[in-house]
Inverse folding.
């Protein structure tokens, strides 16, 4: 594979990872906002009031864990793509700084 082709694919991976990273965080906010609408209604009903807050806490915790795990993996891929696209001289300098 030519150097130009590999740089192109690394760039595609970088853009895709960045989009997934930011998209996951935005989807998390939307998901939690929609869920809050339902949980706020449940909080108003006397029969469901005692349980709704605990379920909300569990739901939000699981949702945050899920979306932020996707975001973390995408951010790691983004960092790897950027590192793969740096010149070799910069990589040597980075490795030398780590070994000190």
């Amino acid at each position: 594979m030519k150097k130009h082709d590999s740089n192109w694919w690394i760039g595609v991976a970088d853009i895709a990872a960045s989009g997934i990273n930011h998209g996951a965080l935005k989807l998390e906010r939307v998901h939690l906002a929609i869920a809050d609408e339902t949980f706020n209604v449940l909080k108003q009903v006397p029969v469901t009031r005692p349980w709704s807050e605990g379920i909300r806490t569990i739901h939000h915790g699981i949702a945050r864990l899920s979306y932020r795990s996707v975001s973390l993996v995408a951010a790691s891929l983004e960092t790897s793509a950027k590192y793969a696209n740096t010149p070799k001289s910069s990589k040597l300098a980075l490795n030398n700084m780590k070994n000190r």
Observations:
- The chain has a mean pLDDT of 87.
